[in-house]
Structures are given as structure tokens and as C-alpha cells.
Amino acid sequence: MKKLFWIVLALLAAFLVYKYAFKKDEAAKEAPKSLAVSAHSEQFNQSVTDVLNSYYALSAAFVNWDSAAVNKAATDVLAAIGNFKADELKKDSSIYETALFPLDNSKNSLTAIQQGSTWEEKRRSFQDLSENLRMLLITIKYDQGVVYWQECPMAFGENTIGNWLSAEEKVINPYLGAKDPKYGATMLNCGETKEKINFSVPDTTVK
Length: 207
What we know:
This protein is mainly alpha-helical. It has 5 helices and 5 strands. The longest helix has 29 residues.
């Protein structure tokens, strides 16, 4: 009788362990993942992505101190801004009007980059472009991922900052870059992230 009791107890314990482990595993498999919900259409978001990708290519050209690549990339950013789906913002006139300001200023900055006769002129126009694109992302509440707003404390000399947008948190400085006449590549990672632009909101209604 005592032996039977221990057998029954062992079977019950095994059943409870199995049931708990199985249910836990099933719950993990069935747990819904939070999905990011965009406030904009796929076409609009793609137009923003195109602007950002061409901007990142421009930043990389500054890192490499490549004037020809800078001018070409500036042309590509201009084209991407020309294809920006601004009309979608007209459903909110205040946002639409606010977005037009940095868009127009960005075009002027890009033209100035192309026409700049010195490397510093081009870099200062890149600073202006970066500030305007940051304003645009905040105005439209960019929600397709994180964009890092970064800062170099000596972009134009001691205590003269320069800012830029980056797709990653690691600092790759487009102002001092990899071939600076004074510092070489030693200041390539000089700077820090000052802000993370990210308006993505998880969909908590998913069951």
C-alpha cells in the first residue's frame, strides 16, 4: 500500500511538472508580438526612407572627404526630397505648412553644398541641412525606427558644434572624418548622441 502511494505521488508530480512546462511553452509561442503602427501610408514612409538613405550616403561622403561623392550625394538627396510625399500631410494643414519650411530650406542647403567652393562651406551647409531634416522628422513624427541626432563639439574649431543625423548610435563624425588635415582619422568617433528621434508606437490592441 505504501509503495502504491509513492507511485501515485510520483505520477502526480510528473503530471504537474509536464503540465506547467507545456503550458508555459505554449504561452510563449502564442504570446502576441507588439507591432509598430504607423500614422502614415507605406508610400509616404518610403519617401522619408529614401530621403534618409540618400542623406546617410551624403554623410558618408563627408566622412571620406570626397568632394565628388559629396556633390553626387547632394544631387541624390535633392531628388529624394523632390519625391517626398508631402501632399499626404495636407489632412492636417498646420503640419503640412510646418513641414514645407524645412523641406524648402533643405533644398537651399543642398544647392549650397554643391556650390560651396571650400570644404568648410560645404560642411556648414551640411549642418544647415541636418538641422532642417531633424525638424522635418519631428514635424511628421517619424515612426519607422530610431534616428540618432549626434553632435561634434569641435566641428568648426574649438567649442563650435556641428550636428548630424545617423542611422546608428555609434558615432562616425562627418565633420572631422577619416582624413582631417589636422587630426587624420583620430577624431573619427568624436562626438555623442544628443537625441533619439523615434515616434513609433506599439499596437497594444493586438490579441
